[in-house]
Amino acid sequence: SQKIEQNSEALNIQEGKTATLTCNYTNYSPAYLQWYRQDPGRGPVFLLLIRENEKEKRKERLKVTFDTTLKQSLFHITASQPADSATYLCALDRAGGFKTIFGAGTRLFVKA
Amino acid sequence: SQTIHQWPATLVQPVGSPLSLECTVEGTSNPNLYWYRQAAGRGLQLLFYSVGIGQISSEVPQNLSASRPQDRQFILSSKKLLLSDSGFYLCAWSRGGNTGELFFGEGSRLTVL
Fold it and tell me: What is the pLDDT of residue A30?
């Protein structure tokens, strides 16, 4: 069955450092991969989408890489701030599909 | 700009009681609409999606049903709640043709006692 794996352990980093979160998947051939941010008790907020033919995408302090051979995406937050503390969800989609599947997320804590 | 409203935000219901969660989207036409459920520490589980009025696709056999009576209204219902229906329910929309990005509501926390 399709599976998305994100590090279930929380990631603790110091303010100003780069946070790197990992998303691995199996039994799936996504057309694109997305990252969302979710704060406690709130709905997820879309951050970035990267397509299967793209290796890297950036948006301000965020960078996403997508390796379809390794079946892995890395999500980087540079110059991290305490306000970046949240749970980050990885999600996959097939082309023309409506069934976005989500990982369980990784909790990030940025210490001042 | 587009907005999505979901209510109620919090709900405590006894086992066997009915359920109705509502979701409306403003500022867009013919959106794709979704209901997800999120259990603590787990990923979002897709329950239903709809590409048009009256068109509902169910992903998981369960005690729930969905309806889309209007273009921008999506309702999640149950006739008799089970304890296992407790969770965080999220409504979402995406643009027609499925560009990928999902826009979520604030969620409804359901506790079945």
Answer: 85
Which member of A36, A96, A105 has the closest CB to residue B98? A96
What's the mean pLDDT when you consider all of chain B? 92
Size of interface A-B (CB pairs under 8 A): 58
CA–CA distance, B47 with B96 (Å, rounded to integer): 19
Local confidence band at B93 (pLDDT 50, 70, 90 cut-offs): very high
Closest residue in chain A to residue B56, using alpha carbons only:
A98
**8 Å CB contact between A5 and A25:** yes
**Would you say residue B75 has pLDDT above 80?**
yes
Q: State the average pLDDT over residues A72-79.
A: 97
Rounded Cα gap, residues A26 and A81, in angstroms = 32
Contacts of B97 (CB under 8 A, 6+ apart): none
Closest CA to B49 of A12, A55, A71, A98: A98
Which of B3, B25, B44, B55 should be substituted to probe chain A, the one whose Cβ sees the most A Cβ atoms within 10 Å? B44
Restricting to B residues 6-65, those with a Cβ less than 8 Å away from any Cβ of A are 6, 32, 34, 36, 41-44, 46, 49, 51, 57, 59
